[in-house]
C-alpha cells in the first residue's frame, strides 16, 4: 500500500532529528490531525442562532448540557466540534445540525 503520507512523515522525522522545529509546525493548518478524517465544518451560524434565540452563552451551554467554554470556542471558529455536541446545540436552538454550519 503506497501512501503520500509516508514521505511527509519521513521529512518531519528528519527535520526533528536534526534539531528542527516542533512537529506542530509541520501539521496543516485548519485540518484534522487524525489521519483519514476530514475536519468538522465550522459552526459559523452558532452565534447568530444563539442571539436570535435571545440566549447568552451561559444559557445555551446549560440548555445544551455542554460547557460554556465549548460554546465560546465553537463561536470563535474552532473546527473541532464533537458531532454529539453539534446535535446538543442544535436541539437546544431548535434547529437541524446542518443549520449551524455555513452553506
Give a concise summary.
With 103 residues, this protein is an all-alpha fold. Helix content is 46%, strand content 0%.
Query: Domains counted in the coordinates: how many?
Result: 2
Helix content: 40-55%
Silhouette:
globular
The largest β sheet comes out as: none
Quickly give the CATH architecture of the largest domain: Orthogonal Bundle
Unreliable runs: 1-16, 30-34
Q: Could you give the count of β-strands?
A: 0
- Classified in CATH, the superfamily of the largest domain is lambda repressor-like DNA-binding domains
Order of helices and strands: HHHHH
- Count of helix runs: 5
Topology:
Blueprint: H1 5-17, H2 46-52, H3 57-64, H4 68-75, H5 83-93
Helix pairs in contact: 3-4, 3-5
Attribute tags:
103 residues; 434 Repressor (Amino-terminal Domain); 46% helix; disordered N terminus
Task: Describe the 3D structure.
By secondary structure, this protein is mainly alpha-helical. It folds into 2 domains: 1-38, no CATH class; 46-100, Orthogonal Bundle (434 Repressor (Amino-terminal Domain)), CATH 1.10.260. It is built from 5 helices and no strands. It has helices spanning 5-17, 46-52, 57-64, 68-75, 83-93. The longest helix is centred in the N-terminal third of the chain and has 13 residues, at 5-17. The radius of gyration is 18 Å and the shape is globular. Residues 1-16 and 30-34 have low confidence and may be disordered.
